Amino acid sequence: MPSSNEKYVLVTGGAGYIGSHTVVELIQEGYTPVVADNCCNATKGKDQRLPESIKRIKQITGKDVLFYEYDLLDKEKLESLFQKYKFFAAIHFAGLKSVTESIQKPMEYYDVNLGATINLIECMKEYGVTRVVFSSSATVYGPPQKLPVDENHQVGKGLTNPYGKTKFFIEEIFRDLAKAETGWHIALLRYFNPVGSHITGLIGEDPQGIPNNLMPYVSQVAIGRLPYLNVYGNDYETHDGTGVRDFIHVVDLAKGHIAALNKMDQTDGCQAFNLGTGTGYSVLEAVAAFEKASGKKVPYKFAPRRPGDLGNVHANPNLALKFLEWRADKTLEDMCVDLWRWQSMNPKGYEITPDPQ
Ligand code: WQD
């Protein structure tokens, strides 16, 4: 039975990559996470009741995670959690997140990502929960007019895919909510490029199918699951012609959510924060850093630019430092060392490789 002195935090999508790393940090900060996840992107191990990522959080923290296999589109199920727990806050990760898939299935992305958010907000209003951290994305900036990108940069212009548009539309929902009603504390965290894994190697990024993103693809080439990397474009206006991104360690990113929770009562309303390092690295620099960290060669071939890709994107992270007293402190080398530890300990991700007969 829930106890009154616990600080319960609803974590939607908490079985996912960034969600699971944030659950670990919540526990270590003294919060009590309650995870609601429909497991559409999660792998279950031998214990079919729990996603493998949630099971392993206990190995890291020693604590059982309160987990509910609920879909946020099922408002009755979601509301039952608000009836059971007096939530201090919500952290909202749940949603579909493939850029390419969103282009093929726009209505599914609008239905799920927006519908889930509206259900969540309606439950929060009904049960008086006024603190929410939203998993947004640098993708809402579209093609940056000025670098580094800061939070005053225009958003919502030149978005090239429905996934990115859902992030922008959800930000707009939160901004309009905070304009209409006082007493809300809303932090929109705009992630740049999350990479890496928890230092134990027990939890990490486990994309379904062929990875869309660079570093999980690189690590799967290194472990032998993929033959070589396609480098999409070497004719960008960058120092080596390949795309430049602001890679941030997933644990730094997770800690950014804790910082936002800890500081959010100091300001009313809705505020966006960049969660990046402020430093950009090119694709070839990231590949070289991974080869050094893993000791593995990563063969690659140059390929045409990927439609919708930008050349150079990196953050101005100073607002988060000023208001959240948060800054990323892990290096690209840390990201690659931790990513390789996860991949080499889990060649097939969370898929349980059967014990050798
Ligand atoms: C990074 C660079 C590619 C794969 C996306 C989403 C964004 C966010 C992070 C969720 C680019 C190059 C990639 C490959 C390559 N996700 N690349 N070969 O596109 O910056 O951002 O993920 O919030 O919303 O848009 O990340 O890792 O896909 O690409 O050369 O096989 O690596 O061209 O320059 P991106 P990415």
From TrEMBL:
GO terms for biological process: galactose catabolic process via UDP-galactose, Leloir pathway. Gene3D superfamilies: NAD(P)-binding Rossmann-like Domain, UDP-galactose 4-epimerase, domain 1. One of its GO terms (molecular function) is UDP-N-acetylglucosamine 4-epimerase activity. Pathway: Carbohydrate metabolism; galactose metabolism. The keyword Transmembrane helix does not apply. It catalyses: UDP-N-acetyl-alpha-D-glucosamine = UDP-N-acetyl-alpha-D-galactosamine; UDP-alpha-D-glucose = UDP-alpha-D-galactose. Signal peptide: none annotated. It is an enzyme of class 5 (isomerase). GO terms for cellular component: cytosol. Residues 9-276 form the NAD-dependent epimerase/dehydratase domain. Its cofactor is NAD(+). InterPro entries: Epimerase_deHydtase (IPR001509), NAD(P)-bd_dom_sf (IPR036291), UDP_G4E (IPR005886). Its EC number is 5.1.3.2. Keywords: Carbohydrate metabolism, Galactose metabolism, Isomerase, NAD. PANTHER family: UDP-GLUCOSE 4-EPIMERASE (PTHR43725:SF47). Homodimer. Belongs to the NAD(P)-dependent epimerase/dehydratase family. This is UDP-glucose 4-epimerase. The gene is LOC100183543.
